[in-house]
Amino acid sequence: MTPRKIIIDTDPGQDDAVAILLALASPDEIEVLGITAVAGNVPLPLTQKNARIVCELAGRPDIKVFAGCDAPLSHPLVTAEHVHGKTGLDGPPMTDPTMPLQDQNGVDFIVETLRAEVSGTVTLCPLGPLTNIATALQRAPDIAERVQEIILMGGAYFEVGNITPTAEFNIYVDPEAADIVMKSGIKITFLPLDVTHKALTTQPRVDAFRALGNTVGEMVAAWTGFFERFDKEKYGSAGAPLHDPCVIAYLMWPEIFQGRHINVEIALSDPLTLGMTVADWWRVTDRPANATFIRDMDDEAFYTRLTDRLARF
Ligand code: RIB
Ligand code: CA
Prior knowledge:
- The chain is α/β, with parallel strands linked by helices.
- 37% of the residues lie in helices and 17% in strands.
- Residues 11, 13, 15-16, 40-41, 127-128, 153, 162, 168-170, 243-244 line the site of alpha-D-ribofuranose.
């Protein structure tokens, strides 16, 4: 099986970091063409730096990391230091990266790569606000038909919002960008809070990361140890949801996930619902299905496979 070519668009973020590690630990299934950073959990100077920290942790300073957009299309940037800490990767002590940031803008890299690769062979994996993806589509509408699929972490329906009562963070930060992506005609799969909230970092799972005995295991345990305090306090849950690695896991192991192909629209007009993903799960409208919306997963299989992959470092 030839590895699937992907571009990871990301706003690290401890959970983004684990997603990047999972992808880099899986060269038989995934070829990471590049990583584009976007403003989200923390501002762009930090997300691009954090992406490089993670690549170096994975022993992959060869991975090309690009800085993309530093602000949403039409709203002031909303960040999530309250969840991820001031650096975006709070938890363990970290040293600055030495690998270079690419000079090319991340949006131009996305456009150039999609035009250069065989049409229909590149999957986009957004793990943060969709600003880079939407800007690339606005700048080069021809790339839409060249994208194999977009598999993104974002949205919420039954689980409702985590940054507002109705909206999930990635969509809320740049709802207009999400709307542009939804209207692009590209095959889209959502990994929303409805499913990621079932991927909890329980203590035995964090202990299993630490028991790997490698630096990656130590770092992931420390990151999840920091990251989970917010969700455990807010939801009273047994751990924090490891949102973004669900995107990479779905790409490799779709059989451990369940969802429906339905209509999903982005609410844009009312401040109360801005950024809400209105998922017609029960098909009560005649709006055409435009996305696969994942609602359930085998979380035991997910953590077993994730931990096995992290053991490879
Ligand atoms: O709402 C969760 C999402 O927002 C995750 O991608 C997390 O990293 C933040 O970007
Ligand atoms: Ca993220």
